[in-house]
Amino acid sequence: MCLNYLIKKEMKKKFCYLLFIITGVISSCSNEVETKKPQEPVQEVLPKTISFQPKSSNEKEKLQTSTFVYNGNKIVSVSCVAYNKIMKTVFTYEGNFITKTEGFMDNQLITTIKYTYNNDKLKESILTLPSANSDSDFYVKDVFTHNPDGTVSYVRFREHKPDTAEDEKILSFSNSNLDKITTKYNGEAPYYKYSYQYKYDNKNNPLKNITGLNLIMLEGTLYNGHDMPNGDFGINDFGLNNITEKITSISSKNDTSTYVEKFNYTYDKNGYPLTKSSDESEYNIIYTY
User: Fold this and answer.
1) Same-domain pairing of 28 and 131
2) Are 171 and 178 spatial neighbours (Cβ–Cβ below 8 Å)?
3) I need a labelling partner for 26 at 20 to 30 A (CA). Which of 10, 87, 157, 206 fits?
4) Quick one: which of 127, 175, 122, 126 has its CA closest to 152?
């Protein structure tokens, strides 16, 4: 009787141990399935409008507002009214890369820029006019080199001298922000030489979450041929953070002059700018999200 009792006790012990193992395996599989479930894409903070409000009380009615349209985090278009005309830029993607921007004025195409990449880095941007039959008819072409030291340099070609590169610009970066722009002058040294340096806050740039924009806005601006008082829709000063100082140095044969433009911001609770101003600008900039 004792022997039977011991055998039954041992069998019950093994059964409980086996049940514990099976339960653990099922739980582990369940957790693994749970962690491998596809994650829903997160809609990041994106600017809905960027408005330029003239500081002059006589010009207050001339508010220029750029309106953005998105598909997820990808920019579809941005438009505004300037000079009583509708200005618009339309973006085309392949995957997460912006491969084309088209500039329109009152629904009439005025420019096209095509972007090509190599190893996920910008290789060329080619601006053409509606009359162009191919990229060989470019109006302006920029060719980029990504250097081992982290700088990016580029040379520009224009339609009237398609085989002659202009002065080379070198772009330096720090923490995903454009730090400095210098120029390597070709041929005879010009009378004046320019360089630009930038300082930043630790807040969020309003454009930082737009997919692919960081790859084409290396110099901090987007230009699609619109003749507008505030550039192309306020898509400028691009980086991870916001520019607080722009330092311009102009060198001549005899001396160097330095000019500093300082920018002021107000921010929302997430650290994105609500307003931007500077003593040098005629406008206050207003952001909505």
Assistant:
1) no
2) yes
3) 10
4) 122
Residue 103 to residue 77: CA distance in whole angstroms: 10
The verdict on residue 123 lying in a domain is yes
Under a CB-based contact definition with an 8 Å cutoff, are residues 46 and 73 in contact?
A: yes
Domain that holds residue 24: 1-36
97: which residues sit within 8 A by CB, 6+ positions away? Answer: 115, 117, 120, 212, 215
- State whether 216 and 82 are in the same domain: yes
Residues 98 and 73: their CA atoms lie apart, in Å, by 12
Q: How many CB atoms lie within 10 A of CB 161?
A: 9
Q: For residue 104, is it within any domain?
A: yes
Question: What pLDDT does 56 receive?
Answer: 82
| Confidence (pLDDT) at 33 | 41
d(CA 153, CA 59): 40
Low-confidence ranges of the chain (pLDDT < 50): 1-23, 25-41
The total domain count for the chain is 2
Q: In this structure, are residues 231 and 217 in contact, taking their beta carbons and an 8 Å threshold?
A: no
Q: How far apart are CA 191 and CA 254, in angstroms?
A: 10
Instruction: Compute, in degrees rounded to 10, the torsion defined by CA atoms 231, 232, 234, 239.
Output: -100
Q: Quote the CA–CA distance of 111 and 42 in Å, as a whole number.
A: 33
**CB neighbour list of residue 48: distance below 8 Å, 6 or more residues apart:** 67, 68, 288, 289
- Angle 154-173-156 from CA coordinates, rounded to 5°: 10
Element containing residue 81 per DSSP (H, E): strand 74-82
The structure tokens listed for 116 are: 């090509």
Q: How far apart are CA 63 and CA 73, in angstroms?
A: 27
